[in-house]
Amino acid sequence: MTTEVSNFKDLRADTIESLKPRDRILKTANALFNEYGVNTIGIDRIIAESSVSKRTFYNHFPSKNEVIAAYLESKDWLRFSELDKHVSRVKGGAKAEILAIFDFLEQWFSEDDFNGCAFARGLNDFNQEDVKVLRGKVDLYFEHWGDFIKTRLKTLVEPDEVKILFPQLLSLITGSVIVAQGLGDAKVAQLNKRIAESILAGC
Amino acid sequence: MTTEVSNFKDLRADTIESLKPRDRILKTANALFNEYGVNTIGIDRIIAESSVSKRTFYNHFPSKNEVIAAYLESKDWLRFSELDKHVSRVKGGAKAEILAIFDFLEQWFSEDDFNGCAFARGLNDFNQEDVKVLRGKVDLYFEHWGDFIKTRLKTLVEPDEVKILFPQLLSLITGSVIVAQGLGDAKVAQLNKRIAESILAGC
DNA sequence: TAAAAAGTACACAAATCTGTCTACTTTTTC
DNA sequence: GAAAAAGTAGACAGATTTGTGTACTTTTTA
Question: Which of the residues A61, A129, A169, B25 has the least number of beta carbons within 10 Å of its own beta carbon?
Fold first, then answer.
């Protein structure tokens, strides 16, 4: 069964067989891009593992970049829809909601298929002219973090302080991802939550 | 002119023309891999821009992976030889030396060709069987950070505290890199230095 | 200065990659 | 239930990629 919101779906719970061609492609692409990166995975592999014909693939996605774009958009949507859900259960206002990010990260890092962040990856993968659109998706993702965090910081501190705390918090978040991936330890999220607590202590 | 230490050289100050074939290849590969990543740059491009023949290239590097390995090794060596140099000028003991990392980062982020970290990239690029060796180079880089930081932490705090402070500091470092790259702002290094000061305040 | 080592130039093999085309079959929809 | 839409199967064009082979020239070194 699938949760449908806006244009995106959470396909994680569906089996490949139960899905229609377009979603089979997206689910397969998601798994392969996540594990190996968009550059090392070819269209042919996605086609083979999603059990669609090449024609069907190209009917849904006119080029490889389009399927990568769809992958990034759905990751972005899913990340923040899960974060919103997680945070909606938290009592304690803006500060508690910011701190809850780190519990969310720990959960994410503990997933079996955690393999870093598609968008941190994208900072490196999308530096050429023909993938400008994809780089745009990466920028959007970081803007979404800005929206999430700054909205809450503004209720806690002065604008000047937001300019300091936002990059610090974003560093703690992205640094957690790299360290969790590099050292293979999800607990780093809790260690960094402590730091976040201390830099927000006065609020 | 070139600074020669161990097996590696700092080729940044040399012009392409002044170098012998092997170093021309390395200097060119470094620039291209740095800008576009190892996956999107082909051997042919490196050969063309380093003005060597294909045969010469393959005489020095039996495969593409070998030139990537050489690139990673030299980056690793250069990063820590510069960090050591930077830190050697710092007075104030282990704590001041750890904090000096963030000044070093700010300098790095301010370089014209700063484009993120080759090793954070490698966490994503080297997930397949045929590049296990390269993934090993990435792991070594993170171990070198461990050596640098833990050696100093051990003189300041108890072993249990090292296990907390090291992942935190490494998060601040790697998070700085991502944020500097993503938001295009080198100043994040100084903001995170403040955090490092506060988590080391009791030492 | 002569032999050995290193480099040049470039054709080409083999694999792989993106995207198109044709011909046929199944599923939807009215 | 017939027409339209969607999907299957797979050949293939054209570009690109890594790596080898051949024949010749320049540079080092003993």
Answer: A129
Q: Please answer yes or no on whether B127 and A198 come within 8 Å at the CB atom.
A: no
Task: For residues A55 and A87, state if they share a domain.
Answer: no
State yes or no: pLDDT of A21 exceeds 80: yes
The three-point CA angle B127-B131-B137 to 5° equals 90
CATH code of the domain covering residue A49: 1.10.10.60
CA of A21 to C1' of C26 (A): 14
Residue A172 is assigned to a structural domain of this protein: yes
In angstroms, the CA of B64 and the C1' of D19 are apart by 10
Residue A3 lies in a domain: no
CATH of the domain at A116: 1.10.357.10
Instruction: State the count of interchain CB pairs (< 8 A) between A and B.
Output: 133
Query: Shortest CB distance from A171 goes to which of B39, B164, B175?
Result: B175
* B54/B42 Cα distance (integer angstroms): 12
Across the interface, whether the CB atoms of B188 and A167 are under 8 A apart is answered yes
Residue from A65, A124, A163 to probe the interface with B (highest B Cβ count within 10 Å): A124
Q: Say if residue A115 is in the same domain as residue A181.
A: yes
The tokens describing A37, both together, are 């990166």
User: Is residue A2 over pLDDT 70?
Assistant: no
Do residues A44 and A89 share a domain? no
φ/ψ (deg, to 5) at A9: -130, 150
Count the domains in chain A: 2
CA-based nearest residue in chain B for residue A34: B124
Q: Answer yes or no: do A145 and A165 share one domain.
A: yes
From CA B9, how far away is CA B12, in angstroms rounded? 9
Same domain, A169 and A202: yes
* Residue A111 clears pLDDT 80, i.e. is over it: yes
Q: What is the pLDDT of residue A7?
A: 84
Strand C nucleotides within 7 Å of a protein CB: 6-11, 16-23
Q: Average pLDDT, stretch B114-119? A: 98
Q: Measure B4 CA to nearest chain A CA, in Å.
A: 30
Q: How many angstroms separate the Cα of B173 from the Cα of each of A62, B22, B92, B142?
A: 40, 33, 20, 11
Take residue A180 and report the two structure tokens written for it: 């969790």
Q: Are residues A97 and A23 in the same domain?
A: no
Domain assignment of residue B20, given as a range: 3-199
